[in-house]
Amino acid sequence: PVDLATFRKYKKLELYTSMDMPMINQWFENHPDAILVTDKVNDPESFVPLFTDPSRLMMELFSWDACRKAKQMGIKDVILSENVFQEIWNDDDKIPTLKREGVEYIAVSRRTIDNNPDLYIRIKNAGIKVFAFHVTFDMLKDEAYMVREGMDRCYGFYADEWTLTN
Fold this sequence. Notes:
Largest sheet: 6 strands, parallel
Structural class: alpha/beta
């Protein structure tokens, strides 16, 4: 890892300031309506105490154990990752398992959703919010595709780079 001064001097896409936890917490104190959504962090016991307001924290988590720990720590919501969701082998068991575990959000590849649209319509109709990723990874499967064809199967989506225009 680089030192903090080096980290702070680089801008993402030559525009966005890299922020450490004190800067993130200050930004959230100044924006009380914002919610922090994490990805690639699977240790709620280490991360949650660092954040200024766990009730405004949503964490995509990658194990059932991490999900249960995060819920016990009072975060706003858990987003169950696709790999953990796929551990529920039988499609008929997926919704009851999510309900029993209190999971209201899942993150799933747009490709997976496209391969089993009926399941994701049922999940959405059951009140579980599906966020799609891998948007813009395939030709013609961009944000416009999601708005046009994907929103009946998911609640929302995220992408590394947005190409939507006004």
